[in-house]
Amino acid sequence: MNKKYSIILIILLIIILGILFLPRNSKITTDEEIESMKKEAEEFVLLMMNGEYKAANEKIILGKRKLIKAEKIETNWREITSQYGELKKISRMEYFRGSLAILIPIKRIHVILDFERGRMFMNIYFNNDNKISGFGYGNYGYKKPST
User: Fold this and answer.
1) CATH of the domain at 92
2) Rounded distance between C-alpha atoms, residue 131 and residue 63, angstroms
3) What total number of domains does the chain contain?
4) Of 53, 49, 87, 92, nearest to 70 (Cα)?
5) Is there a domain that residue 116 lies in?
6) Counting runs of H as helices and runs of E as strands, what totals does the chain give?
7) Which DSSP string do the residues of 57-113 spell out, in sequence order?
8) Is the residue at 23 inside a domain?
9) Average pLDDT over residues 14-23
10) pLDDT, tens digit, 9 for 90 and up, residues 101-146
11) pTM for the predicted model, two decimal places
12) Residue 52 banded pLDDT, cuts 50, 70, 90
């Protein structure tokens, strides 16, 4: 069997395993749970905006230990605000459900942030208990401010 067919076979196997196991690992997220996650996401963003990095860090649940330090959250937020200016408002929040490598269900709130000099997004990820488990920033699709 050549390499091309081996890769295709592996991909098909991953897809089949995802189809078999994903429904068991995931449950339907109710509208109330989505609203609760949106509220948590908004509180998380507002804590960072107000410089309460330790409190923001306390909202992140990563298993038995913290992998993200409050200082790292502060550094990231300060880098963003130095480039984009102060946060003016949260424009929109949307719930998305997907999967990572087909097998791991992912719930996230996609938050659109309007700053003084531009717009960017933040993805806030949630675990199966609907607690924040991580986050990331990006400006894909939005014009980066000129510095």
Assistant:
1) 3.10.450.590
2) 11
3) 1
4) 53
5) yes
6) 4, 4
7) HHTB--TTS-SS-HHHHHHHHHHHHHHH-SEEEEEEEEEEEEEETTTEEEEEEEEEE
8) no
9) 56
10) 555 678 899 999 999 999 999 999 988 888 898 898 888 666 666 6
11) 0.74
12) very high
